[in-house]
Amino acid sequence: MKVLVTGVAGFIGMHLSKRLLERGDEVVGIDNLNDYYDVQLKHDRLKQLENFDNFTFIKMDMADREGIAMLFKEQQFNRVMNLAAQAGVRYSLENPLAYVDSNLVGFANILEGCRHNKVEHLVYASSSSVYGSNTDMPFSVHDNVDHPVSLYAATKKSGELMAHTYSHLYDLPTTGLRFFTVYGPWGRPDMSPSLFAGAILRDEAINVFNEGKMQRDFTYIDDIVEGVIRVIDKVAEPDSEYDKSSPDPATSYAPYRVYNIGNNEPVELMEFIETIENAVGKKADKNMMGMQDGDVVATFADIDALISAVGFKPATPLKDGIGKFVDWYKEYHT
Questions:
Q1: Is 253 annotated in the active site?
Q2: Distance CA 223, CA 324 (A)
Q3: CB 2 within 8 Å of CB 77
Q4: What is the C-alpha end-to-end distance of the chain, expressed in Å?
Q5: How far apart are CA 255 and CA 247, in angstroms?
Q6: Where are the alpha helices (DSSP H) in 76-214?
Q7: Which residues pair with 148 in a beta bridge?
Q8: Do residues 266 and 201 lie in contact, with contact meaning Cβ atoms separated by under 8 Å?
Q9: What is the pTM of this model?
Q10: How far apart are CA 99 and CA 104, in angstroms?
């Protein structure tokens, strides 16, 4: 089948596209190659895909309304995986309008493209950040998520609402995936694995926020990709048991679904740092710092809905995943 992958030069986008291409799908990837982080890393990711005959790259910004409309009309995609977004919780405090342009305006253009060209299934990246100030663990897709603590999270929740509207109005099957702290080879340089590994290798101190009293549901990239592939293949359908008098945020009378994808095993930040130290072979010099605005103390994914829907549970142990990441990091940066 023919799949559009937005954000194809991104961390998840590259890995997902490679899997789709290897199984024989035709992939058209778009990316605006912005300079939020080192553009060379994005070009190097694209090099992992360019030898596939069934891959086409188009440099394009999702906020380009006319360009996106023409792309959909000309290409006639079967499925769409929307991964493109302005990423980063902390950066949303500095440059909020970048999130509006990409995560709201850009996503609206994707929805319109799917609507007018009869796309069979739109899958899109949401985020564990939507759980905001929730303290009931693990985070469930059936929970209310109306109290985000960053604009990034608010745009991701808005994307879910926009998708539901199109599922309702136009019978467009949509599935949102709330990713939980994805890591692995080719990961973003602004994420903790790269920041920590790089600093330790350079004998520089690392910043440890909230005095290290944090937990994250770290999820290895191969597990994320496997889950995404299975969800792309399972077209969202209306929930025949949906009760409008007691609405469930995760399902609908429309062809709409939301799933968590996480390792279902939160890790203490200090344990995570120790795992990186062991893989690198050196101890970190730590700057213990306070909590950052927009951040949350813990994330923990309830993945029962994902398991029930597609029969998959992420299972890569942290030690194994970090080992593979550090091996890649050393090779890429030396």
A1: no
A2: 14
A3: yes
A4: 38
A5: 15
A6: 96-99, 107-116, 151-170, 192-201
A7: none
A8: no
A9: 0.94
A10: 7
User: Which residues are bridge partners to 26 per DSSP?
Assistant: 2
* Helices H / strands E in the chain, number of each: 11, 13
Q: Which of 202, 191, 206, 205 is nearest to 36 (CA)?
A: 191
Cβ neighbours of 76 (radius 10 Å): 10
| The residue to which tokens 């103390």 are assigned | 297
| Distance between CA atoms of residues 303 and 39, nearest Å | 34
Question: For residues 251 and 242, what is the distance between their CA atoms, to the nearest angstrom?
Answer: 7
> Pairing mode, if any, of strands 215-216 and 267-268?
antiparallel
Going by C-alpha positions, the residue among 59, 175, 63, 56 that lies closest to residue 112 is 63
| Helix (H), strand (E) at residue 328 | helix 318-333
Q: Which residues pair with 240 in a beta bridge?
A: none
Per the residue annotation, which of 36, 99, 152, 220 is the catalytic one? 152
Q: Which tokens sit at 6?
A: 């937005």
- 283: DSSP letter: P
Could you give the CA distance from residue 254 to residue 240 in angstroms, rounded to a whole number? 9
Q: How far apart are CA 281 and CA 38, in angstroms?
A: 26
Task: Note down pLDDT in tens along the chain; length 334 residues.
Answer: 999 999 999 999 999 999 999 999 999 999 999 998 999 999 999 999 999 999 999 999 999 999 999 999 999 999 999 999 877 767 777 788 888 888 999 999 999 999 999 999 999 999 998 998 788 889 899 999 999 888 889 999 999 999 999 999 999 999 999 999 899 999 999 899 999 999 999 999 988 887 777 888 899 999 999 999 999 999 999 999 999 999 999 999 999 999 999 988 888 889 999 999 999 999 988 878 777 776 677 787 899 999 999 999 998 999 999 999 999 999 999 7
What is the rounded distance in angstroms from the CA atom of residue 232 to the CA atom of residue 222?
A: 15
Residue listed under structure tokens 């951040």: 295
